[in-house]
């Protein structure tokens, strides 16, 4: 099985590339969806957040006000790290469970994780794809998307690991600074690598590979028992 890591930065265009993988029929686990599920009212993640940040971050229906919580953590690096630390175990388990369900089908999986490096999950994915954008374009897109000021946009960008550093750690980089057509052209080349033949190691970790190991081991044990009789 091949588990591909997909990450980027805020307004880098990661969601665009994620959608392209979905359109190409590649199974994808979206960490943002998992994250929303683990903080629903009454869950363990929800209880941890309320305990740490208070009832002020709750909506009238008891659900977490994601916009309000975002304002808090994006302007306070300490609280941002606290939130990541509280939710990391819940999100990691949720992602693992989704990947496991797809592993049963023996397919290549793309895992879309904004905090891929921060949660050390890059160690469990290969190749790692980083969607990169130049700083000027990133700020402009964020300001346009969220209607925020340049200072607010920069604060949100600074709250994350530097995108240039992520780029340096990537196996594959998609430059999303240009047009959508440019990004799609790069994506099609990347797709060829992602859906290509599995390596020997990847095959051994796949459903079929493990089944082969079990069958070979069983056959070897039966043969050894027969020779001993």
- The total count of helices amounts to 11
- Characterize the biggest β-sheet: 5 strands, parallel
Q: Give the total of beta strands.
A: 5
Beta-strand proportion? 5-15%
Order the strands across the largest sheet as they lie in space.
Answer: 2-3-1-4-5
Average pLDDT over all residues = 84
Decide which structural class fits the backbone: alpha/beta
Q: Name the overall outline.
A: globular
Helices and strands, in order, run as EHEHHHHEEHHHEHHH
Low-confidence stretches: 206-229
Range of helix content: 55-70%
Radius of gyration from the CA trace?
A: 21 Å
Cα distance, first to last residue? 39 Å
Structure commentary:
The protein is an alpha/beta fold and 229 residues long. The chain contains eleven helices and five strands. It has helices at 14-23, 31-38, 44-53, 66-74, 77-103, 135-146, 150-158, 163-169, 180-194, 200-205, 207-228; strands at 3-8, 28-30, 109-112, 128-132, 172-175. The chain has a five-stranded parallel sheet with strand order 2-3-1-4-5, sandwiched between helices. Residues 206-229 have low confidence and may be disordered.
Keywords:
disordered C terminus, 11 helices, five-stranded parallel β-sheet
Secondary structure: elements and pairs:
Blueprint: E1 3-8, H1 14-23, E2 28-30, H2 31-38, H3 44-53, H4 66-74, H5 77-103, E3 109-112, E4 128-132, H6 135-146, H7 150-158, H8 163-169, E5 172-175, H9 180-194, H10 200-205, H11 207-228
Parallel strand pairs: 1-3, 1-4, 2-3, 4-5
Helix pairs in contact: 2-5, 3-5, 6-7
């Amino acid at each position: 099985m091949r588990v591909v890591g997909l990450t980027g930065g805020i307004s880098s265009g990661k969601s665009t590339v994620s959608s392209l993988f979905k359109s190409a029929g590649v199974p994808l686990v979206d960490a943002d969806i998992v994250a929303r599920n683990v903080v629903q009212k009454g869950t363990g993640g929800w209880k941890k957040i309320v305990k740490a940040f208070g009832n002020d971050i709750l909506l009238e229906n008891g659900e977490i006000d994601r916009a309000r919580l975002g304002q808090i953590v994006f302007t306070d690096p300490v609280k941002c790290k606290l939130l990541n630390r509280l939710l990391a175990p819940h999100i990691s388990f949720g992602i693992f469970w989704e990947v496991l369900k797809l592993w049963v089908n023996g397919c290549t999986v793309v895992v879309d994780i904004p905090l891929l490096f921060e949660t050390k999950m890059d160690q469990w994915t290969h190749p790692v794809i980083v969607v990169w954008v130049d700083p000027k374009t990133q700020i402009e897109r964020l300001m346009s998307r969220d209607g925020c000021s340049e200072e607010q946009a920069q604060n949100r960008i600074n709250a994350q690991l530097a995108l240039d550093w992520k780029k340096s750690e990537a196996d594959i980089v998609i430059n999303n600074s240009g047009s959508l057509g440019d990004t799609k052209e790069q994506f099609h080349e990347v797709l060829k690598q992602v859906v290509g033949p599995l390596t020997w190691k990847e095959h051994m970790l796949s459903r079929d590979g493990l089944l082969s190991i079990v069958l070979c081991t069983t056959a070897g044990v039966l043969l050894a028992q027969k020779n001993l009789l």
